[in-house]
Design a protein that fits this description.
alpha/beta, 12 helices, seven-stranded mixed beta sheet, globular, 10 strands
Length: 277
């Protein structure tokens, strides 16, 4: 196994940062080196320097870089993660936005789950909409689920999950929105799947983000921890533009919108602090 040197790590992390906005600090050296070695073994490349050179000059379609990115962005996620925040969304923010839009004859709701990994989050949001909206059939709903990891998106499209992903799903929701299949895993119902759309998006690509507009809610939870300060601010500013007036943004519990941008209004939703445009 070729051990990655400090200079090689810096060169590779800078390369990844320029293409994705994700910054891996030196404490991630072992984590990264294990995954690089896996790709080097698969490709028959002997040195880390040769692998970096291949990424730079012999990967014109970014196919190998995409494989590496998929390996480096593996996150654990599960249904109904960070329940207090979802409760604030369901019981306060959603009802406020839906009531306001319905009052003016607008029956559309657009949600973006950015950096959704294997889709537990957007499917969770779809379940919440089914539970909280009085007449969901009267609404035109779109949930955009995006991630940089193509492997995760392909898994998400199948809508099949094991017990670990479902550990926080209330039993009545499990019965209502999932079907147990022969191998013991669960398939999410078609009425949930059909309102979720999938898209491969690199959040550091400005043009791709600028195309996204008119969202009522944006969820980007536990994603910005991988970005540096400048990339975080740039992305959150772009999220602000993508939101409708009165729309809400939700970050992870360890991330604060207020520390990144002063553009958003701070509100209290139940016992939770939320940020709106």
């Amino acid at each position: 196994m070729s051990n990655i040197t400090a200079s090689e790590f810096e060169a590779l992390s800078d390369f990844i940062y320029r293409k994705t906005g994700i910054k891996f600090e030196s404490k991630k050296l072992y984590f990264i080196s294990k995954r690089i070695q896996k790709r080097m073994d698969a490709l028959g490349i002997e040195t880390v320097s040769d692998y970096i050179r291949m990424l730079r000059f012999s990967d014109p379609k970014n196919s190998e870089f995409q494989i590496l990115t998929d390996l480096l962005t593996i996150n654990e996620t599960y249904f109904f993660r960070d329940f207090p925040q979802l409760q604030a969304f369901a019981e306060n923010c959603l009802s406020e936005v839906a009531s306001r839009k319905a009052a003016r004859g607008d029956r559309t709701l657009n949600i973006w789950s950015a950096g959704c990994s294997t889709e537990e989050e957007p499917y969770t949001l779809a379940i919440i909409l089914h539970e909280m909206l009085d007449n969901i059939a009267a609404w035109k709903i779109s949930i955009l689920a995006s991630d940089i990891d193509l492997t995760a998106l392909e898994k998400a499209k199948k809508g099949v999950y094991g017990e670990r992903s479902l550990r926080d799903v209330p039993p009545e929701y499990l019965q209502r929105y999932f079907l147990k299949i022969s191998d013991g895993s669960y398939s999410i119902s078609e009425k949930i799947q059909h309102i979720v759309e999938f898209e491969h998006i690199n959040l550091s690509e400005k043009e791709a983000i600028r195309e996204k507009k008119e969202f009522d809610f944006i969820f980007c939870r536990n994603v910005l921890i991988y970005f540096d300060d400048m990339s975080r601010k740039r992305l959150v500013d772009q999220f602000y533009v993508a939101l409708n007036p009165g729309g809400y943004i939700f970050l992870g519990s360890s991330e604060s919108v207020g520390r990144i941008s002063t553009a958003f209004k701070i509100k209290r939703a139940g016992g939770f602090i939320v940020y709106s445009k």
